[in-house]
Amino acid sequence: MKIERLSQDKIRIFLTYDDLLERGIQKDDMWREIPKVHELFSEMMDQAYTELGFDASGGPLAVEVFALPAQGMVVIVTRGKVAAGSEDHILEEDDDSEEDIYEMEVTMEQSDVVMYAFRDFEDVIDVCKKLKSASLTEDGRLYSYNGKYILALEPANMETSRHNAVIAVLAEFGEATSVTYAMLEEYGKVIVASGAIQEICTHFSG
Hey, what's the signal peptide range on this chain (predicted)? Predict the structure, then answer.
């Protein structure tokens, strides 16, 4: 579980699917009101307070959950006013000494885009060559974001075995990123808008 502060009143938490499995939570459970999810949220808020001094108690929270297909989940928590007319969830944590009540507006978003980050352009070239030579895919979009290169692939039309092979190659050269596709679209710089793997292999074939 990685937690980072985005602003005074906003944090981003990145949960891998291993983080969820360790707690006996399936991906689809995040959409449901169950005790395990309440416990996970309390754990996240405790860690946010310990690491960043982010105090989530005593006020409404807007919680956005983004499910990423290969990497895990991104949870963005914002302190402040819950939007009018939104659905509020009250989470209660049972504790002998005190009782924390979180008033939350929860929104969920799921993305099918697989995204991996690469520190060096050489790694991007290597991963593209390997994906193309293994006839896995020639598609993809390449972005520059926050000092890294991010390759985004939409595996919607791929069969599961090929999809898993693509992720294995991406993981060999890069790392799963906690950036959501919406953030990438808004703040990232597009380097290759489509057919990125083919493009890069064509220009860097040596």
Answer: none
Q: Which two tokens stand for residue 106?
A: 């929860």
21 lies in the same domain as 106:
yes
Whole-model pTM: value is 0.59
The values of phi and psi at residue 138, to 5°, are -120, 10
Among 89, 110, 131, where does a domain finish? 110
Separation CA 173–CA 74 (nearest Å): 22
Q: How many residues does the chain have?
A: 206
pLDDT tens-place string over residues 178-199: 787 788 888 899 999 999 999 9
Instruction: Please tell me the distance from the alpha carbon of residue 12 to that of residue 3, in angstroms, as a whole number.
Output: 6
Confidence check: pLDDT of 69 > 80: no
Residues 81 and 162 in one domain: no
DSSP code, position 83: P
Sign of CA dihedral 43, 48, 53, 55: negative
Write the single-letter amino acid at 117. Answer: A
